Amino acid sequence: MAMKSVKSNKMRTFLTMLGIIIGISSVIMMVSIVQGVTRDVADQVAGAGTNMINVTLTGQGTTRELRMRDMNELVDEHPEIIRGIAPNISGRATVRQGTNNNTVNVVGTNPIFSTAQNVNAQIGRFINDEDVELRRNNAVIGTFNVQDLFGGRNPIGENIRLDGVLFTVVGVLEESAGGRQGSGDDRIIIPYPTAMSLFNSGRIGSYIVEATGPDTVGQAVTLTERFLLRELGSSQAFHIFNMQNILDMFDGIMGQMALMLGGIAAISLLVGGIGIMNIMLVSVTERTREIGIRKAIGAKRSSIMTQFLIESVVVSCMGGVIGIVLGAIGAIGIGNVIEVNAAPEFSIVLFSFGFAAFIGMFFGWYPANKASKLNPIEALRFD
Amino acid sequence: MIKIKNMYKIYTMGDNEVRALDGISLDIEHHEFTAIVGQSGSGKSTLMNMIGCLDTPTSGEYYIDGKEVSKLRDDQQAAIRNEKIGFIFQQYNLLPKLNVLENVELPLIYMGIPYKKRMEMCREALEQVSMTDRMDHKPSELSGGQQQRVAIARALATKPPMILADEPTGALDSKTGKEVLETLKNLHKDGKTIVLITHDNDIAAQAERVVRLADGVIVSDTKSN
Ligand SMILES: Nc1ncnc2c1ncn2[C@@H]1O[C@H](COP(=O)(O)OP(=O)(O)OP(=O)(O)O)[C@@H](O)[C@H]1O
Ligand SMILES: [Mg+2]
Q1: Alpha-carbon distance A78 to A53, whole Å?
Q2: Closest Cβ–Cβ partner in B74, B83, B87 for A296
Q3: CA distance A313 to chain B (A)
Q4: Residue of A147, A150, A144, A48 lying closest to A104 (CA atoms)
Q5: Among B81, B89, B97, whose Cβ lies nearest the Cβ of A298?
Q6: Atom 25, ligand 1: residue with shortest CA distance
Q7: Residue of B39, B46, B197 to mutate, ligand 1, most atoms within 8 A of C-beta
Q8: Distance between CA atoms of residues A289 and A380, nearest Å
Q9: Among A292, A357, A313, A275, CA closest to A6
Q10: How far is the C-alpha of A353 from the C-alpha of A25, rounded, in Å?
Q11: CA B61 to ligand 1 centroid distance, Å
Q12: Looking at the partner chain, which of A290, A293, A298 has a beta carbon nearest the beta carbon of B79?
């Protein structure tokens, strides 16, 4: 019965639904994109390794230098929480192989770097402890460098010169960024003592602390902080940051953004709901005589109420479904443009549909109640 | 079946007071065929609306099958309209968007009859008025007489003991009017209580009892046999 009246007024029904359509589709679109971006960033961060903590030594407020030996005390104190520490000396150097030369990022570190940063050798091997102890001039190079310096042929065992110093290539890194210049695929990793002499620097400014697992990262941060404070005597002397912190911060920002966008969408849904109420009130007035007839032949208040409520719920649910479809198309489309998978999650689709139904119910209530309370004889006389 | 005691319906508009019912007392027995006549504005429709539980009087008592209507809840009054009374209006009052079958089905839906039983009862009611061949037509596709027959079928669908008809022949030509009247007489023979409002004295003459109203007062009440 209620469906009939919805169908017979197609244009008007559509215009009534428009508010709901716009509201629901913008909710779906905004939430899906925000969720897609968040997922994307989380994936990237997880790929970079969330088990690690970056420590930067600023040198402020202290005269003490922390060497690798000092840092290893931290591992010795808490082996169940901290698995290892990698120094991180980076700089730029000129690389030469035969007639090819270029400027390249050089990282001086130890084998822990490989697990902490999730960076492995695809052929040959990574830097090992012997390389570090014996200060060997061994190097692991990125895939870009293989192309750039060796024209793609196997470089293992070949020599390169970094700022004129002779190095032997012992491994090639797994490709992580499409082999582009300036990316993680364009770098050369060497043992840290070798790097210190290459760059003529006596101190290590940055370390990577690797926790034993995702669950121990929090503890590892606390322990590292306490250790550095004890050793350096000043909180000014160091910075600590952990990917999880960044991820949490990002999540928080995205969450707030979603909330704000959701608020805007909610306002448009409110407007849509008022539109439904408005049309339902018009419909009740137009159909006063029909209501009178129905009452005369025995419709109870609840029957009339139900009829009009179903009508408004059907209208807003239809608007909801159209809004969900349009919102999903929009989200996926925009997702494609910004290269993020923004397909709406099932839960948000379900929530939107439920919300549309709720709006129909909420804003249909007053008109339906008004219809049900009409005096039958006055309604019959109406024309 | 019906007992009205000292009923008033007074409309006040500004200083003006219209006494549509001015102290009416009336009893109608089961199986009676009563015609209510009177000039335009004498209060016939007002009285019928009271009998049909569609309107509330200014004062007075009204009992239907011993129950005082003013003491019933809204839903209980709706149930009385649904189960005890079948209405036939001058303007048919069919729902224009529903077809014949759906119109007749409506009171049965409100009665809570399940679908199969409902269809049976609809068919039965439409057979009584010979309208079974037009069940999927809209009211606008029917003649006035046919529409009134559908309205009668709707009034009969729930098998109410009483039929209230407010000038059912008013909008029809005399031949179709006669047919409708015949239908009502047959219903009376089948045992229904009929209250018929008319200002046509020839039609009133066919009833067992004629109640004449003037200015909201019963001026005569005659039983023919
Ligand atoms: N809602 C109302 N407001 C004010 N006055 C009303 C109302 N309804 C009826 N009346 C008045 O009550 C009186 C009786 O009206 P009613 O409709 O009962 O007359 P009737 O006998 O049915 O007339 P008709 O033969 O023309 O149908 C009339 O004077 C009418 O103007
Ligand atoms: Mg009248």
Answers
A1: 15
A2: B87
A3: 21
A4: A144
A5: B81
A6: B40
A7: B46
A8: 5
A9: A313
A10: 11
A11: 20
A12: A298
Read off the tokens for A105.
């990022």
Task: Name which of A173, A167, A160, A174 is nearest A190 in CA terms.
Answer: A167
**How many other CB atoms are there within 10 angstroms of residue B203's CB atom?**
21
What pLDDT shows up at residue A257? 85
- Provide the whole-model pTM: 0.72
Query: What does the alpha-carbon distance between residue A61 and residue A78 come to, in Å, rounded to a whole number?
Result: 26
Tell me whether 0.95 is exceeded by the ipTM. Answer: no
Segment B34-63, tens digit of pLDDT: 999 999 999 999 999 999 999 999 999 999
Q: What is the pLDDT of residues A268-308, one digit of tens each?
A: 888 889 989 999 999 999 999 999 999 999 999 999 999 99
Flag whether residue B158 sits within 8 Å of chain A, measured between CB atoms: yes
Scanning chain B, the segments in alpha helix (DSSP H) are 44-51, 74-83, 100-111, 115-128, 144-157, 174-189, 201-204
Q: What is the DSSP string of A76-95?
A: HH-TTTEEEEEE-EEEEEEE
Per residue in A85-94, is it b (16+ CB within 10 Å) or e — as a string? bbbbbebebe
Distance B16 CA to ligand 1 centre (A): 14
| Class of residue A183 by CB neighbours under 10 A (exposed 0-12, middle 13-18, buried 19+) | middle
Amino acid at A223: L
Enumerate the residues of chain A whose CB falls inside 8 A of the CB of residue B158. Answer: 298
Q: What is the CA radius of gyration of chain A?
A: 33
B140 Cβ inside 6 Å of ligand 1:
no
Q: What is the DSSP letter of A203?
A: S
Phi then psi for B206, rounded to 5 degrees? -80, -10
Q: Is B161 in the pocket of ligand 1 (CB under 6 A)?
A: no
DSSP 3-state assignment of A180?
coil
Neighbours of B76 (CB within 10 A): 13
The pLDDT value given to residue A361: 94
A317: number of Cβ within 10 Å: 20
The answer to whether B92 faces chain A, any CB pair under 8 Å, is: no
Chain B CB contacts of A300 under 8 Å are 74-75, 78-79, 110
Classify the C-alpha dihedral A40-A46-A50-A55 as positive or negative. negative
Residue A338 burial (10 A CB sphere; 0-12, 13-18, 19+): exposed
> Is A87 within 8 Å of A206 (Cβ atoms)?
yes
**Measured from the CB, is residue B40 less than 6 Å from ligand 1?**
yes
| Tens-digit pLDDT profile for residues A245-277 | 777 888 888 888 888 887 888 888 888 899 899
Q: Which of A5, A303, A376 sits opposite B54 (nearest CB)?
A: A376
Structure tokens at A285: 């007035």
| % of chain B exceeding 90 in pLDDT | 76
Q: Is B206 in the pocket of ligand 1 (CB under 6 A)?
A: no
Is A297 in Cβ contact with B98 (below 8 Å)?
A: no
Amino acid identity, position A211: A
What is the C-alpha separation between A10 and A28, in angstroms, rounded? 25
Q: Which residues make beta-bridge pairs with A172?
A: A123, A141
B52 C-beta closer than 6 A to ligand 1:
no
Say if the Cβ atoms of A298 and B110 lie within 8 Å: yes
* A242 touches A221 (CB < 8 A): yes
For atom 6 of ligand 1, which residue has the closest CA?
B11
Q: Is the CB of B170 under 6 A from ligand 1?
A: no
